[in-house]
Design goal:
The protein is an alpha+beta fold. Helices cover 17% and strands 45% of the residues. The chain has 3 helices and 11 strands. The strands form 2 sheets. Strands 1-2-3-6-7-8-10 form a 7-stranded mixed beta barrel. Strands 4-5 form a two-stranded antiparallel ribbon.
């Protein structure tokens, strides 16, 4: 959920988040890592002039997002740091596996989210009501099951070994 200028040595890709098949947001990000399975990008908060206060965390101008996407996992993990480098925590989106085509990284949001504070005292499941309203359980039961399993996995990791999730 971010935008950043790139240096000549750091390739820029376009991250596109989809919801119900439609583009929700798109932004340029610096490609930090791609091993064929995990893709890591970095970008500042996409809404440069806007604060988004969730009550448990504020995303604001100057925040930097280091975002981890997988081609074989049903989630993404975004590490958020304030402009001064202070870790705010991790925002996790439950998504279909990511797809990178050329310089475009596409990810479909499946409504479920998880927040884990920097000190790991707050682990909050989010948007379960939106997930139920989405009708994914009816239209794509296998995807709904994978999404719920991914949320459970992330919550377990957040409460035990921590986030971001291990690469292997």
């Amino acid at each position: 959920m971010s935008t950043t200028p790139s240096t000549p040595s750091t390739p820029t890709i376009e991250v596109t988040l989809l919801k119900s098949g439609r583009e929700k947001v798109s932004y340029p990000a610096s490609l930090l890592h791609d091993d064929g399975t995990r893709i890591t990008v970095q970008a500042p908060w996409v809404y440069e002039d806007k604060v988004r206060d969730f009550g448990f965390v504020r995303f604001e101008p100057g925040d930097v997002f280091t975002e981890h996407y997988w081609r074989d996992r049903w989630y993404s993990v975004k590490e958020i740091r304030a402009a001064d480098g202070t870790l705010k925590g991790w925002y996790c989106d439950i998504t279909r596996p990511a797809a990178l085509h050329g310089t475009r990284l596409s990810v479909e949001d499946l409504d479920l989210d998880l927040w884990c504070s920097a000190d790991r005292t707050e682990v909050i499941r989010l948007d379960e009501d939106e997930f139920e309203e989405s009708a994914l359980r009816t239209t794509d039961p296998a995807a709904a099951k994978a999404a719920l399993r991914a949320l459970d996995t992330l919550e377990h990791l957040a409460r035990t070994t921590g986030l971001p999730v291990p690469v292997s």
